[in-house]
Amino acid sequence: MADASISEAMNQRPLSPHLQVYKLGFAMVLSGLHRITGMAATVGFFLFAWWLMALASGPGAYVTAMRVVSSPLGKLVLAGFTFSFIYHLCNGIRHMLWDTGRMFERPQIRRSGLFMLVSALLLTGLVLWLGCLALARGAP
């Protein structure tokens, strides 16, 4: 009889980790975004390799690749790739600092996360702005 009550109790408990157990915090969101941007940057580098292969394949393939990249959807994908790469890089630097045993106090984690997020957004904006300037000046 005791075995049946233990079995019933185990079936009623939530599995850990479980969304009912954890409250979604700032650090958890940044961690999840780090993983997502890592996957997005990987896909972006495959697209970059495709563009490089089109460049090496000759004028016809290059024109096709540039038509795809310069379309509105292509520009959106390029901007997303840029953010993904920069965010993942900035957060990777933050993780390297953690590997030294620093900045593990809760206020420091929050401050460094906010700094990293703002830095990634500003650097992405800067890279996109510089790219637009280069295109406006007629750079290839």
Outline the fold blueprint.
Blueprint: H1 2-12, H2 26-57, H3 59-69, H4 72-99, H5 106-136
Q: What brief labels describe this structure?
A:
mainly alpha, 5 helices, 0% strand, 3 helical TM bundles of succinate and fumarate reductases, 140 residues
Major sheet summary line: none
Order of H and E elements = HHHHH
End-to-end distance: 78 Å
- Categorize the overall geometry: elongated
The residue-averaged pLDDT reads 88
CATH architecture label name:
Up-down Bundle
The low-confidence parts are none
Total beta strands: 0
Radius of gyration: 22 Å
Number of helices: 5
β-sheet strand percentage: under 5%
CATH fold group: 3 helical TM bundles of succinate and fumarate reductases
Which class do the helix and strand fractions yield?
Answer: mainly alpha
CATH homologous superfamily label:
Fumarate reductase/succinate dehydrogenase, transmembrane subunit
CATH C-level class is Mainly Alpha
Q: Please tell me the total number of domains.
A: 1
Helix content: over 70%
Describe the structure.
The protein has one domain (26-136): Fumarate reductase/succinate dehydrogenase, transmembrane subunit (3 helical TM bundles of succinate and fumarate reductases, Up-down Bundle), CATH 1.20.1300. The chain is 81% helix and 0% strand. It is elongated, with a radius of gyration of 22 Å. The N and C termini lie far apart (78 Å). The chain is mainly α. The longest helix is centred in the first third of the chain and has 32 residues, at 26-57. α2 (26-57) runs antiparallel to α3 (59-69) and α4 packs antiparallel against α5 (106-136). The chain has helices spanning 2-12, 26-57, 59-69, 72-99, 106-136. The chain has 5 helices and no strands.
